[in-house]
Amino acid sequence: MRLTELRRHFSTSGSTLVKALDGVSLSVAPGEIFGIVGRSGAGKSTLIRCVNLLERPDSGSVRVLGEELLGLDDAALRERRRGIGMVFQHFNLLASRTVADNVAFPLEVAGVPAAERKTRVAEALALVGLAEKAKNYPTQLSGGQKQRVGIARALAPRPKILLCDEATSALDPETTQEILGLIKTLRDQLDLTVLLITHEMAVVKEICDRVAVMERGQVIEEGRVFDVFTRPAHPTTRRFIADTIGHSIPPGTVARLPAPGAGEARRLLQVLFAGPNSTRSVISEASRRYGLDLNIISGRIDEIAGEPFGIMALAAYGAPEQIEAALAWFAELGLGITPIPDSAVEGH
Ligand SMILES: Nc1ncnc2c1ncn2[C@@H]1O[C@H](COP(=O)(O)OP(=O)(O)OP(=O)(O)O)[C@@H](O)[C@H]1O
Predict the structure, then answer these.
(1) What is the pTM of this model?
(2) Is 46 close to ligand 1, i.e. is its CB under 6 Å away?
(3) Is the minimum distance from the CB of 10 to ligand 1 under 6 angstroms?
(4) Fold of the CATH domain 249-344
(5) How far is the C-alpha of 268 from the C-alpha of 348, rounded, in Å?
(6) pLDDT 10s digits, 313-345
């Protein structure tokens, strides 16, 4: 899937122009789970809706499964959309239909004969583990089960691409894990390409292979999830990540730390250990090289997309210029360093 230079502008009542998409280009490889993350209003929904042309971009190119969709007539477009399933935040199930009839709905619209519909519905419900709920109505299901029905409905036409629009945002954390696990399993089983949008980095960390961060209609950062998490380049990405894998300094810790001596400064730092230098004894080496006292406050090992990395909070004491030199050295080694302002941990 290749989206190139997509633009979509809306003029609002006060005739201000909203650039929902301001030149977005993205490529998603077959079989990949690709996340688009951004705050509310960043343009994520507009972007994902451009993939099946529920939203038509003002300009740009939308190539899906090797074909440009923008030039197709209505009949051809309807046909191609069957290869692109979509899952919604609020499930969008029809309350008057049973689970099986909800899943059958896109097949009915596509004119699939009844016998074939039955087979496909059974197949889709089995894939999401809800075969025994076929005759139930949506009101009899939990949120997680409703989303499983939403996923089965998206899968019934046997698509190659699955679009997930905040698919877990209405679910509790445990159910979110379940649904994300299911999406990953389905990708593996059915060789699906998944494009998902979310405002939560935790979702990206859990299942995506690559991620694009959007802000004001533009992609501000893109890459492998592990790289973006461990070496974020843009301040907005850093803020997003801080919410997910930020330092964990116990409350009151800063107040208990020794004050810096005469002529000394104290800096709180978060160090991410990832990449080729992550196993080097950088803490003691930095201490020797720059004459610093490095007080380890907290540390843990976390995992992103199956790859481990270390995260540590330190208090560095020493001459201010030596601390700066050590920071530069850490950065040179490719370790992610983020100063933690005292105010971020005091007074909790
Ligand atoms: N049909 C429309 N008419 C006018 N403005 C629109 C329309 N659709 C989207 N916008 C505006 O475009 C911008 C991007 O919206 P979009 O819904 O794509 O963002 P988002 O990142 O998905 O946010 P959210 O998570 O809140 O949906 C917003 O400023 C929004 O108000």
Answers:
(1) 0.85
(2) yes
(3) yes
(4) Alpha-Beta Plaits (3.30.70)
(5) 16
(6) 889 999 999 999 999 998 888 777 777 777 666
